[in-house]
């Protein structure tokens, strides 16, 4: 078994354990997992090939779904066309 695969398994176990922590620790754990997962994904891709790198990317996205969903919502909000605010009509004027 390669070192990269062992590290990915440890990363996944830590991600599952972080989900069991109190809610106030979820986002700090998520940022730490993202920070360690990106170089680990590069290591897996280099040592085991792009197919395993893609599988690792999907597995990481499944484990860290909320940060990805929140980033997508923010990106959609930034890219959505902003409607110009129209003046409101006051009744009786």
> What about the largest sheet?
none
Summed over residues and divided by their number, the pLDDT gives a mean of 86
Our estimate of the beta-strand percent is under 5%
Are there runs of 5+ residues with pLDDT below 50, and where?
A: none
Backbone CA Rg: 20 Å
How many extended strands?
0
Structural class: mainly alpha
What would you note in describing this structure?
The chain has a domain at 29-66. Helix content is 74%, strand content 0%. It has helices spanning 3-19, 26-48, 50-63, 65-79. Helix 1 (3-19) packs antiparallel against helix 2 (26-48) and helix 2 (26-48) packs antiparallel against helix 3 (50-63). It is elongated, with a radius of gyration of 20 Å. The relative contact order is 0.12. It comes from Roseicyclus marinus.
How would you concisely characterize the structure shown here?
With 93 residues, the chain is mainly α. It has a domain at 29-66.
List keywords for this structure.
93 residues, mainly alpha, 74% helix, DUF2484, transmembrane helix, DUF2484 family protein, transmembrane, membrane
